[in-house]
């Protein structure tokens, strides 16, 4: 029978250890509320003994997020009384609180970090569990650096802390040392022994990604009996990070046939959660990151687009809507083949014959080379321009004049009056605006908003370089919202101000284009 796997999210503790990713209390609350929507089973909200600020944040999360929910709230303590008291006093407000403590078991930790004997460390752990247990029924014990520990000493420790009252045993691969097969064997043996001692004790794993194997090790542990996985959103965390929650959850769900296990995660909240964590922590998600990267569901090669249009399962194992994204994204680029371009033109109900299409396709390749990504409104403009040049417009419904085109732009960046002047055209009409703003991009977008008659709000603005050196091509991506629908638009240029303006215009035109696209019934 399929097993439920508990998901323990440590974005607010291990994830927050990333340099520069520190959140204030309001931001932590926002992340915690989102993790609740995501339906994680346990939130590790922080390390209360580390600072008064962290203590208050954990306490507020327990009070505001954990008090009306069955979701567990925990926080980290070292195996010392003062740390355990801090955790207790912060998490006790939650409906379902837990104390999590950590103490090393590897020779390196015991001898070099603590300069104590193994027996002394074991006794410290047992006493700490007994003390925590006197405060609250749920206690998790983490055997830090477990994967580099002597197995029989690791087991001796686990047996003793279970006897002292630990309800969850967490086996961390603290330095990302483990390899899947070996780690899986270790988890299999531990699980077998633990369940013989007390079948109610949950066995958990916490894997780091130093060798890029955190997700693989976590999944191998599940395959070998682990009941619980510790993860972070987008895989953030100490050094190379932790196992990414979205990868583990989607692997278990997509390959349920193999793992025979499931989680209670609300998968439709995965992308939302990733975006919130990335923007609040200021940590960009790698574009090709599994599940949450910008390109994770974008198909651009001609061969793939052709295959997908014939049958989606040819190149798609997860439907993007499963994780909360819009439907499949076929990005038209210079690599897109005829099939994808023909299909996009057809979806816009533009009726051209095969001979005309061949000519338009040549124009398309030229445009794609210059513009990098081609949008639906570009196709309208492309086709109509071609037909106009060939005097074939007479029987053709005209749309290209409905789209905005950037004519000219001047932006002045200075500390007192950052200002922008723009000229935009739409068919035969021409518009100008000059505005000041809080910065050059604010001035530019205020000017564009003044002349572009499309109701939209910018939700996200991102700029990155796509080539190296000082002539780097800058890529701007904006996400806008219009009448409850989200649109993503991009533009690439050596002049990042121009790319910013073109991204804005691409977004506006994507909204306009919808008027001309027949709605599906
Ligand atoms: O990596 C680690 O060992 C940890 C423990 C606190 C679980 O983060
Ligand atoms: Zn860790």
UniProtKB/TrEMBL annotation:
The top EC class is transferase
Q: State the reactions this protein catalyses.
A: 3-methyl-2-oxobutanoate + acetyl-CoA + H2O = (2S)-2-isopropylmalate + CoA + H(+)
The pathway this protein participates in, as annotated, is: Amino-acid biosynthesis; L-leucine biosynthesis; L-leucine from 3-methyl-2-oxobutanoate: step 1/4
Q: Which UniProt keywords apply?
A: Amino-acid biosynthesis, Branched-chain amino acid biosynthesis, Cytoplasm, Leucine biosynthesis, Manganese, Metal-binding, Transferase
Which PROSITE patterns does the record cross-reference, listed alphabetically? AIPM_HOMOCIT_SYNTH_1 (PS00815), AIPM_HOMOCIT_SYNTH_2 (PS00816), PYR_CT (PS50991)
Q: Where is the Pyruvate carboxyltransferase domain?
A: 5-271
SUPFAM superfamilies on file: 2-isopropylmalate synthase LeuA, allosteric (dimerisation) domain, Aldolase
Q: Which residues bind Mn(2+)?
A: 14, 206, 208, 242
Q: What is its EC number?
A: 2.3.3.13
GO:BP terms for this protein? L-leucine biosynthetic process
* Annotated segments matching region Regulatory domain: 405-521
Chaperone in keyword set = no
SMART domains according to UniProt: LeuA_dimer
Stored InterPro entries: 2-IPM_HCS-like (IPR050073), 2-isopropylmalate_synth_dimer (IPR013709), AIPM/Hcit_synth_CS (IPR002034), Aldolase_TIM (IPR013785), LeuA/HCS_post-cat (IPR054691), LeuA_allosteric_dom_sf (IPR036230), LeuA_bact_synth (IPR005671), PYR_CT (IPR000891)
Q: What is one GO cellular-component annotation here?
A: cytoplasm
**Known cofactor(s):** Mn(2+)
User: Tell me, what is one Gene Ontology molecular-function annotation carried by this entry?
Assistant: acetyl-CoA C-acetyltransferase activity
PANTHER family documented for this protein: 2-ISOPROPYLMALATE SYNTHASE 1, CHLOROPLASTIC-RELATED, HOMOCITRATE SYNTHASE-RELATED
Q: What's the subunit arrangement here?
A: Homodimer.
Tell me its family.
Belongs to the alpha-IPM synthase/homocitrate synthase family. LeuA type 1 subfamily.
Q: Which NCBIfam families match?
A: leuA_bact, PRK00915.1-3
Q: Report the function annotation for this chain.
A: Catalyzes the condensation of the acetyl group of acetyl-CoA with 3-methyl-2-oxobutanoate (2-ketoisovalerate) to form 3-carboxy-3-hydroxy-4-methylpentanoate (2-isopropylmalate).
Its recorded name reads 2-isopropylmalate synthase
